[in-house]
Amino acid sequence: MTIAAKPKKRLTAEYSKLRNLMINLSESQNFDFFIMICILANTFVLAFNWYMQPKSYKDVLEIFNYTFMAIFTIEAIIKIIAQRLNYFKDSWNIFDFIVVAGTAIILGITWAGLAKGLEILSTILRTLRIGRVFRLIKK
């Protein structure tokens, strides 16, 4: 198992000010800790769905979903700016990107009112979002 482990490539800050900022932010322990807390909180929120839940409760959960979607989208943008194409060389980053893009698409379709009959996609996407917890094992 340790033979298959690869050292993490350290990005050097020799680029534009924006990219340098994104490199420093994406490699920060505080940023990593914040994202881990958000992943756990997102999993916790996703666990609080049940059949015939009150509309007011469902609305609050939807606000949380949009908030987490925004946080994870910003995380992906920060890492893509920092790592450029190297972002897509890490399988966990690819998984995160697919989950973020899928969440944006499904929430956008739902928000536009076009999601009639697509509830199964939301369920599949929730399952993938919960799968992000396994990323914490990597840390």
Characterization of the model:
The protein is an all-alpha fold. It has one domain (17-47, 54-138): Up-down Bundle (Four Helix Bundle (Hemerythrin (Met), subunit A)). Helix content is 68%, strand content 0%. It has helices spanning 17-26, 29-46, 55-83, 91-111, 119-131, 135-138. Helix 1 crosses helix 3 (55-83), helix 2 (29-46) runs antiparallel to helix 3 and helix 4 packs antiparallel against helix 5. The chain is elongated. The two termini are 15 Å apart. The model has no long low-confidence stretch (mean pLDDT 81).
**Annotated CATH topology:** Four Helix Bundle (Hemerythrin (Met), subunit A)
Annotation field: number of helices: 6
CATH architecture: Up-down Bundle
Distance between the termini: 15 Å
Number of strands: 0
- Cα shape: elongated
Question: Would you state the CATH class?
Answer: Mainly Alpha
What fraction, in percent, of the residue positions are helical? 55-70%
Mean pLDDT, to the nearest integer, reads 81
What is the chain-wise order of helices and strands? HHHHHH
Q: Biggest β-sheet, characterized?
A: none
Structural class: mainly alpha
Query: Could you name the CATH homologous superfamily?
Result: Voltage-gated potassium channels. Chain C
Cα-based radius of gyration, to the nearest Å: 17 Å
* Low-confidence segments: none
By oligomeric state, this entry counts as single chain
Strand content: under 5%
List keywords for this structure.
139 residues, Four Helix Bundle (Hemerythrin (Met), subunit A), mainly alpha, 0% strand
